[in-house]
Amino acid sequence: QVQLVESGGGLVQAGGSLRLSCAASGRTDSIYAMKWFRQAPGKEREIVARIIWSDGSSYYRPSVKGRFAISRDNAKNTVNLQMNNLKFEDTAAYYCNAETRYGTSSWGQGTQVTVSS
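Below the sequence we write its predicted structure tokens.
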């Protein structure tokens, strides 16, 4: 089992930046990929970015590509999401997710990001 704790959300003006962090504990040796999802009120949860734990290869949803950057620190078992040039439509609860090599998945408690226009 992998436990996840997010931090770094908050309120920011459009065009501003925020950095989210997710600290993993437990069976971190089993992690295959780390992902950030978000969910806005009344909308479905959607993937924002993903990073493969072993080689750092990444994926971004098109609407955040070029503005967001996902990174990992294997030694500290953390994954970060640097969010620049934030837009009103980025407002959502952001969730960290860990996918293991065994196909199991763990979620953090979420952190709120609010972008004022």
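DSSP finds no helices and eleven strands in the chain.
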